[in-house]
Write a structure and sequence with these properties.
The chain is an all-beta fold. The chain is 0% helix and 39% strand. A 4-stranded mixed sheet has the order 4-1-7-8, with no helix packed on it.
Length: 158
């Protein structure tokens, strides 16, 4: 993944690797992209996975067992209890996922993005656009040297 764009851009060198550390596991990380979302906690099946995540933070990936688990994305403890999102996520062995918290017109949403972009050709770099800006329509990136991403809609990725 080259960039996380729409609200801000992050050079690939600052992105944590999402490769599972142990074979047979899946990898999940969390990105807080909701400007009004406050500090956020994420629980998997009631157990803490990511704590006190602030806006624009990208959490390092954690390994999880393959299967389906309940994801609770909510205000961090100590704040008025409010769930931003509660849903089931199914992951398979060796998959890599990013959960993104975003908002649109005061309503919070999650976007589950599978981190499986194609490898760039030898000697080339790859750019991946993840659209999490609730106030923007379709977006695309164009490089000065040529090439562009396909148009990407809200809560999806190129």
């Amino acid at each position: 993944m080259g960039l996380l764009a729409a609200l801000w851009s992050v050079p690939a060198s600052r992105l944590p690797t999402a490769a599972p550390q142990q074979g047979g596991q899946a990898s999940v990380r969390f990105v807080h992209a909701a400007p009004h979302g406050a500090l956020t906690d994420v629980n998997f099946d009631g157990s803490p996975a990511f704590d006190d995540v602030d806006y624009k933070m990208i959490e390092a990936p954690i390994d999880v067992a393959p299967g389906t688990f309940e994801v609770d994305v909510r205000r961090a403890l100590g704040q008025r209890l409010r769930y931003f999102s509660r849903y089931d996520l199914t992951v398979a062995a060796d998959e890599r996922w990013t959960i993104v918290l975003t908002d649109r017109s005061g309503t919070y949403y999650h976007a589950d993005i599978e981190d499986d972009p194609p490898a760039p050709p030898a000697g080339r770099a790859a750019v991946r656009l993840v659209h999490v800006s609730g106030d923007a329509g379709l977006v695309k990136l164009r490089a000065q040297a040529g090439g562009q991403t396909p148009s990407v809609s809200y809560r999806s990725a190129s």
